[in-house]
Amino acid sequence: MFKCSKSYCIATRRVCDLQWDCELGTDERNCQNTSCPHYFRCKYKTGCLDPSEVCDSVIHCAEPADDEDLCHVQNCPVKCYCIGNAVDCTLNVFVQMPTVSCYLKVLKIGQNKLVEVDRPDTPFLQMVMLNLSYNCIRNLNKHALNYFETLLDLDVRHNIVTSLQSHTFVHLIFLVTLNLQGNPIKFVMSFGFVGLKQICKLDLS
Question: Is residue 198 a contact partner of residue 173, using CB atoms and an 8 Å limit?
């Protein structure tokens, strides 16, 4: 808590938040030198959060919501490397996608033995990058890709995809980069790329 001069107390997160909460704005003074010993500091804010407000299922930091960002991190899959909300399982022998948190942001499973994109138990809520390159994937299942609808970057280079069915990517409306390089694609059905409203880079070479 923060004590306003000769007055009431306010929550610590309301100090240096660019809004006057104390009389005469004393809670917004000296904010250029704000520090947060024993408190949590949001990445793009000058204010501090009480520890009780971190991982309380309420976002106090706005973007990038870092007070809730790492609250759902699960154990790292065996033979993978994990840091924060990113998992790297490159150069392994996975034949199925490993079980990971639905709050994951980056998943790299390149150079494994995957034969298909498995449908996860629950949709990924924040996934922005998925690397499936250098596997043995024959078919991109639109029903499985539906669970990755927040993706910005999808890398499926050097698999053995021979055709793209209608509406394969229809749910990936935020996708910016789609890399299909090195696949023996012979057929692209009508509406194969429908839904890619934000696409900036598409590689079919």
Answer: yes
